[in-house]
C-alpha cells in the first residue's frame, strides 16, 4: 500500500500523524500495522486542492491514495 497523509505544515507530532494512518487503515480492514518513519519518504510535492483543504479543516488530515489502496 502506498498512500500519503497530508496534514497542516505546523503539525509536527508523529503520534498524531500515525493516529491518522491507523484510522485510515481501519477503513481498509488493515489493523495492527505499525508504521515508523523508516517507511516514510518525501516522494512528491503537490498543491492541496480546495477539497483537500476542506477535508484538512474538518478532519485534520487527508489521505492521498497512490497504489494498492483498494
Summarize the structure.
InterPro entries: DUF2024, NE1680-like_sf. This protein has 70 residues and is α+β, with helices and mostly antiparallel strands.
The pLDDT mean sits at 83
Beta-strand residue percentage: 15-25%
Spans of at least 5 consecutive residues with low confidence? none
N-to-C order of helices and strands: EHHE
Count of discrete structural domains: 1
Structural class: alpha+beta
Rg value: 12 Å
Distance between the termini: 9 Å
How many strand elements? 2
Overall geometric form: globular
Number of helices: 2
Task: Describe the structure in your own words.
This is DUF2024 family protein. InterPro entries: DUF2024, NE1680-like_sf. It comes from Maribacter cobaltidurans. By secondary structure, the chain is of the alpha+beta class. It has one domain. 34% of the residues lie in helices and 16% in strands. It is built from 2 helices and 2 strands. It has helices at 14-27, 50-59, and strands at residues 2-6, 62-67. It has a two-stranded antiparallel ribbon with strand order 1-2. The protein starts with a strand and ends with a strand.
Amino acid at each position: 500500500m502506498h498512500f500519503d497523509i497530508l496534514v497542516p505544515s505546523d503539525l509536527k507530532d508523529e503520534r498524531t500523524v500515525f493516529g491518522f494512518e491507523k484510522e485510515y487503515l481501519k477503513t481498509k480492514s488493515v489493523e495492527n500495522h505499525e508504521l515508523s518513519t523508516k517507511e516514510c519518504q518525501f516522494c512528491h510535492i503537490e498543491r492541496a486542492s480546495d477539497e483537500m483543504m476542506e477535508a484538512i479543516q474538518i478532519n485534520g488530515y487527508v489521505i492521498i491514495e497512490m497504489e494498492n489502496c483498494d
